[in-house]
Write a structure and sequence with these properties.
Keywords: Coiled coil, Membrane, Metal-binding, Repeat, Transmembrane, Transmembrane helix, Zinc, Zinc-finger. It is built from 24 helices and 34 strands. With about 1300 residues, it is α+β, with helices and mostly antiparallel strands. The chain folds into eight domains: about 200 residues, no CATH class; about 50 residues, no CATH class; about 70 residues, no CATH class; about 60 residues, no CATH class; about 80 residues, no CATH class; about 30 residues, no CATH class; about 80 residues, no CATH class; about 400 residues, no CATH class. The strands form 16 sheets. It has a three-stranded antiparallel β-sheet. Helix 14 crosses helix 16 and helix 17 packs antiparallel against helix 18. The N terminus and C terminus are likely disordered.
Length: about 1300
């Protein structure tokens, strides 16, 4: 028989190698196959492990945070098919136990990581013991086991090759390498990655299991996919009993083997007796009877078991053999003896020679050499053939020791061992072998492992080994507070497991004065506060306390204020008995004045005032006492007032006669009021005189007509236009038909005039007809109109021909000469028509008609927007570029707004001057100019986009962008303001925390004359009712100055702040080597300057103006004072240049900036001197005209909502710097107009305006002169960081 290979898996050391067959039980083999001591030891260890992972009891309650499932209904659904087939619930005991464990949170524990298995975790279950383990844990376990076995086989120590296997951590069943799980399957193995569903068992697919039942009967499991073993087969079959004597009966397949109980009767192996046992499974037991049986040689007889008839005695046969010389030496045998072995062919001792000799002769030796292999297995015996055994090998050979490290010449039979200790690691891979001259088969390590197990409480008691230790088999008990409810958890899980929910009542004695606590379940921690009624007897009344118990209340006691920080202690929490609160039982109480009777709490049941008016009638009989409810003294009855009631001091409030609006001169009194003697100033019928009349007389309607007549002649006119001859009277003038005066009448063209009497006019007889001269005049006008229309038609034809010729010239290469002649002819015709048109313009009437016709036609076609009186509700653009930029004829603006052109020219020159200065000086100045330009464009675009700050409209200019909103010169305005101010302030060498505010104030100084003068000359218009710009200074909002200060300061701060962290240069104005970084430091402040400026409105303007309604002028002066103090403090602070001599070197480019400032201030100083604002006509986009009663909300920074009109009310507005006097009939624009004409108005005080601007110019000259010529000079922009001075400071300190 082939020998069974030894199992080398370290995890299978104590497993029984001979697995007992599953299924049939044979009583006959019960004693024969009794368990070995090793098997008993394994079963004991297995029982301990099963007890260690038993996580539930009959009434287990989950301590997990997962919600419990409706286990009963789901389990019933799983076993429904089984029970419907006829299966019994008793057969489902073990399966139901696994099902219930799957539903209880925290019951399933992974034996490898000793942690709870959640319902949605990926798991693997063993096919033998059905334990559930995390998928990643079993993968790591199996791969570690295979790796350790491979390490052992690949080690230098030669180990017999065995099949690589891994085992279940619980039952130690062996699995092959290909059985390593690589995916998450359901219990039945059909579905990959089963999803957790609340109506299914966790890790189940919900389909029928379908596994083959054990023992194998050919049927499949009928349960839905489930954990644990499949239940016994419920199918019914017909089967007979073990002995076969009875008819087949119908039984369950799982219980098909049965005994009829009758005598078996089968013939036993002795062939003499029959089986007397009851009907049983398997073969019959050996015959239990005894009988006399002969031995094999028939010489002895003995009483023995009938089942073992053959036996041998101890007698040697000793019969003479056939040779006659020898006897048989075999012990007790049957039959004849074998022939004598000496009579057969024999060989000499060395086996080389054969002899056939009589049995009486000995076998001789040959004379040849023995040559038998000696015990060494390498050499042969060199003696002659001999009968005795060969001796030991005496050959001298070189032998290696067992470990193979040394060799030596010794006799062959002698073993050779060295003294070197083996340094190989034992099978535990921790301890060295240390055996002398080890042959590689190092003995297994016998030291204890002593590693701490995963539980953290115990150490491994096994022999030192590789890989993971066995899981701890100890368990711990987790109990509730009272100890009546317990659960058993694996060792190490006690502190991670929540105590079980206990349904027993809490047994903690009460802390308060009540005999027992309110009934509540067992719990940890303090019991809940007592909610029972106090019911103590009060001391100050007869009521019992009806409040919740307060005899044992947790009170926070603050510690005494410490004198030192280290003496500070936490407040203490103590349980104290608080006094009963004030009694709240209702008690009936009547107020002092007797007005009402109501229920009051017991502790407040004292008569008091109800705070209603007293209500008793005063002496004036018109009013009642308004004193609060009080005790009335000396009252005659319950209605009239008493001595201490109110004394009426009110004026008379009785109703006055109809038409009288005067008060009664007497104080409040009884009875009627006297007649009113107040004098009224009335107007007579004619309105010329205003006589005085007593009020009482004026109220008499019969005398009113007589009183209003002053006696003078009526100043009114008849319908004919002549004055009335009657004295002062009411109503229309009488006797108008008696008028006989003369009236002038004209013809229809108003050339002829004649006088007629009023009588002829009333009879419609007076008429004047046009004569021939009038007819000639009309025909002349018609002829001029035809000439104008013909001129328009010719101009249109010429325009079309020019465009066609230009198109052909661009896209055709042939017939150039012909096109040139045609082009010259068109040019000549155009010139002649222009001459004709200029000659016709000398006629005044023709010029007027042409202007009116051309203006109306252009307005209708939206071709010429700049006609005085043109109105548009919406502008239409011819594509994107027409919206983006509009270039118009400069002559229109030179005629309507000459001062605006001067302002634009000044700013464009200033922008170019600052740009030249920045380019010539170099350094960071070009990037400063670029950042300011970006900042200006961002600010303007934000104002146009955001509705809450869209509150101004620029007048139109020859070049304008963004839908007629952004003039060209406005983009140069910001460099003119901020660049000039930045260059001047930079020469002051202020620190970063003061320089931005100084730049902001410098910008305001440049801006003030522009703001004051430009708004009066209609260079732009403001929103009429915006609350943020309602407070004005010469029609300039104070917030405009606040805006320029904060936004310029924000831009300056970001310009220097961002460069500190992005660039790396040698000085403040020295550029970085990377142009990209410098451009980035220009773009960032250009974008962040706007939000930074908006944030600077929050600390001062918005809280003071929006919440406390403080005038914007005050908020700006607060900002001005704060800024001046900061600048003054920074300028007074010692600087690193204080001890140096100021070098007031002025670069020639500085005079470019000085020149621009002179042009700027001079322009706005001369405008009010030489120009009149009433001559200015502003045509373009402005605040839309609309209804006067529509408002829109404005959200402030602090969440308040303000209101402003949605449209400009053309008949009721506060913008007094424009009106409609230049429009036809002084008629304001129509409702809905966005593009319309506004007319300037005269200065209220021209001299005052000139003086204000002159004063500002003087201040600006002084300040900017000191900054440019009295500071540190232009060397600031070329200085590098001074490292010498900083080192001096370090040495000084």
């Amino acid at each position: 028989m082939a020998t069974r290979k030894k199992d080398t898996n370290i995890w299978n050391k104590n497993r029984n190698s001979n697995k007992s067959s599953v299924g049939k039980f044979n009583p006959a083999n019960q004693n024969v196959n009794s368990p070995t001591p090793a098997e008993q030891k394994f079963k004991e260890a297995q029982g301990k492990l099963q007890a260690a992972i038993r996580k539930h009891v009959q009434d287990y309650e989950s301590s997990s945070e997962e919600e419990e499932l409706e286990s009963e209904n789901i389990i019933d659904g799983i076993v429904k098919n089984y029970t419907s087939t006829g299966g019994k619930n008793e057969s489902l005991g073990r399966t139901k136990a696994f099902l219930k464990d799957s539903f209880l949170s925290g019951t399933a524990t992974c034996l490898i990581c000793i942690s709870r298995i959640k319902r949605d975790a990926e798991v693997w279950n063993c096919n033998e013991c059905y334990c559930v383990i995390h998928l990643n844990c079993i993968q790591r376990w199996s791969k570690d086991t295979i790796y350790q076995q491979k390490q052992i086989q690949e080690s230098p120590i030669q180990v017999r090759q065995v099949t690589l296997t891994w085992c279940c951590p619980k039952c130690r069943r062996n699995y092959q390498i290909e059985d390593i799980p690589d995916r998450y399957l359901c219990f039945c193995g059909k579905t990959k990655n089963p999803k957790l569903q609340p109506f299914l068992v966790p890790h189940s697919c919900g389909e029928i299991c379908g596994k083959s039942l054990i023992p194998t009967c050919g049927h499949k499991c009928l349960l839905l996919c489930h954990p644990g073993p499949c239940p016994p087969c419920p199918v019914t079959i017909a089967v007979s009993c073990y002995c076969g004597s009875q008819q087949p009966v119908t039984r369950r397949c799982s219980d098909k083997e049965w005994s009829c109980g009758n005598r078996c009767g089968k013939l036993l192996s002795c062939q003499k007796h029959s089986c007397s046992e009851p009907c049983h499974f398997g073969t019959c037991k050996p015959c239990p009877k005894k009988s006399l049986q002969n031995c094999m040689c028939k010489t002895n007889r003995k009483l023995r078991d009938c089942a073992t008839p053959e036996w041998r005695c101890d007698k040697i046969c000793n019969k003479p053999l056939s040779c006659g010389n020898h006897n048989c030496s075999v012990i007790c045998h049957d039959g004849a003896c074998d022939p004598c072995p000496l009579t057969e062919v024999r060989s000499c001792p060395c086996g080389k020679s054969k002899y056939q000799l009589p049995c009486t002769e000995e076998t001789p030796t040959c004379q040849d050499t023995c040559e038998k292999i000696l015990s060494c297995g390498l050499h042969t015996c060199n003696q002659r053939c001999h009968k005795e055994t060969c001796g030991v090998c005496l050959e001298i050979v070189e032998k290696a020791c067992k470990c193979g490290l040394h060799s030596k010449e010794v006799q062959c039979y002698k073993p050779y061992s060295c003294e070197t200790k083996c340094k190989r690691m034992k099978d535990c891979n921790k301890h060295p072998c240390n055996k002398k001259c080890c042959d590689g088969n190092c003995p297994p390590c016998e030291k204890p492992c002593a590693r701490t197990l995963n539980c953290g409480n115990h150490k491994c008691t096994s022999v030192c080994h590789r890989g993971l230790c066995y899981p701890c088999n100890q368990t711990e008990t987790v109990t509730c507070r009272c100890g009546q409810t317990k659960i058993t958890v694996p060792c190490g899980r006690k502190h991670k497991t929540k105590p079980p929910k206990c349904n027993q009542l809490c047994t903690v004695p009460p802390d308060c004065h009540h005999e027992a606590r309110e009934r509540h379940k067992c719990h940890f921690g303090d019991c809940p506060p007592c909610r029972q009624i106090c019911s103590k007897q009060r001391l100050n009344c007869n009521h019992l306390c009806s409040f919740t118990c307060h005899s044992a209340v947790m009170v926070k006691i603050e510690a005494q204020k410490p004198s030192m920080p280290w003496e500070q202690t936490e407040p203490q929490i103590e349980r104290k008995s608080l006094p009963c609160p004030a009694c709240e039982e209702p008690v009936t109480v009547t107020c002092l004045g007797g007005h009402e009777t109501s229920d009051w709490p017991c502790h407040r049941a004292v008569p008091s005032s109800c705070h209603r008016p007293c209500g008793r009638s005063l002496k004036c009989e018109n009013h009642i006492c308004t004193f609060s409810c009080h005790v009335v003294e000396n009252a005659p009855d319950g209605i009239k007032a008493g001595k201490n009631c109110e004394v009426c001091e009110s004026p008379c409030t009785k109703e006055r006669p109809e038409g009288c609006q005067h008060e009664c001169p007497k104080p409040c009194h009884p009875g009627p009021c006297p007649p009113c003697k107040q004098m009224l100033r009335i107007r007579c019928h004619c309105g010329l005189n205003q006589p005085y009349v007593a009020c009482s007389e004026w109220l008499v309607l019969e005398k009113r007509e007589e009183i209003k007549c002053c006696g003078n002649q009526c100043p009114k006119n008849f319908e004919c236009g002549h004055r009335c001859r009657t004295n002062c009277h009411s109503g229309p003038c009488p006797n108008s038909e008696l008028c006989r005066r003369k009236v002038k009448v004209t013809c229809k063209c108003k050339r002829l005039k004649k006088e007629f009497s009023c009588e002829l006019m009333r009879s419609n007889v007076a008429k004047v007809e046009c004569d021939e001269v009038c007819a000639q005049k009309k025909s002349e006008e018609r002829r001029l109109q035809q000439i104008v229309s013909e001129q328009k038609r010719r101009e249109e034809e010429l325009r079309n021909e020019k465009e066609l010729a230009k198109y052909k010239k661009l896209f055709e290469n042939k017939k150039k000469g012909r096109e040139r002649r045609l082009y010259d002819e068109i040019e000549e015709l155009d010139k002649r028509l222009n001459d004709i048109f200029e000659s016709l313009q000398n006629i005044y009437l023709f010029r007027v008609i042409v202007r009116l016709h051309a203006g109306l036609q252009a307005a209708m076609n939206n071709e010429d927007l700049y006609i005085v009186g043109a109105e548009f509700t919406e502008l239409k653009y011819d594509g994107f570029w027409d919206w983006f930029v509009r270039i118009s004829d400069i002559r229109i603006f030179l005629k309507n707004e000459p001062t605006y052109l001067i302002s634009q020219l000044a700013f464009i020159l200033g922008g170019l001057a600052t740009l030249f200065h920045a380019i010539i000086r170099g350094g960071r100045l070009p990037y400063l100019w670029l950042g300011i330009l970006i900042h200006g464009v961002v600010v303007e675009c934000m104002c146009y986009i955001l509705p809450d700050i869209d509150n101004f409209w620029h007048s139109q200019t020859p070049v304008i962008f963004l839908g007629r909103r952004l003039p060209l010169h406005i983009m140069f305005l910001y460099p003119c303001f901020i660049y000039n101010s930045s260059i001047g302030v930079a020469k002051m060498r202020l620190p970063l925390w003061a320089e931005p505010l100084a730049v902001g104030l410098g910008v305001v100084l440049i801006d003030i004359p522009y703001d004051i003068i430009s708004v009066n000359f209609l260079h732009w218009t403001w929103h009429d009712t915006d609350p943020n710009i309602a407070d004005r200074h010469y029609w300039v909002p104070w917030n405009s100055y606040y805006f320029h200060t904060t936004f310029a300061a924000s831009f300056t701060f970001w310009f220097h702040f961002t460069r500190k962290y992005i660039c790396n240069s040698e000085g403040k104005w020295v550029p970085d080597k990377s142009r990209f970084k410098e451009i980035l430091c220009s773009i960032i402040p250009g974008v962040l300057g706007t939000p930074g400026g908006i944030l600077l409105f929050l600390p001062i303007y918005h809280p003071l103006h929006d919440i406390f309604k403080i005038h914007s002028e005050v908020t700006y002066f607060i900002l001005l004072v704060i800024s001046l103090l900061i600048i003054w403090s920074a300028d007074r602070a010692p600087k690193q240049y204080a001890n140096e001599k100021k070098q007031q070197s002025v670069h020639w480019t500085t005079f470019l900036l000085i020149f621009h400032l002179i042009v700027h201030y001079t322009s706005f100083l001369l405008m009010p001197v030489f120009f009149n604002p009433e001559d200015e006509i502003a045509i373009g986009l402005k605040e839309p005209i609309g209804p006067c009663n529509e408002h829109v909300p404005i959200q402030t920074a602090f969440g308040m909502t303000l209101q402003k009109r949605k449209y400009l009310c053309a008949t009721d507005y506060d913008e007094k710097y424009f009106d409609w006097h230049c429009l036809p009939n002084n008629k304001p624009p129509s409702i809905g107009s966005q593009w319309y004409t506004a007319c300037g108005v005269p200065f209220p005080n021209r001299v005052e305006m000139i003086v204000i601007v002159a004063l500002i110019c003087f201040a600006a000259a002084t300040i900017f002169g000191n900054m440019h010529f009295g500071s540190h000079g232009d060397n600031v922009f070329s200085e590098k960081a001074d490292t010498k001075l900083s080192s001096k400071k370090i040495k000084k300190h």
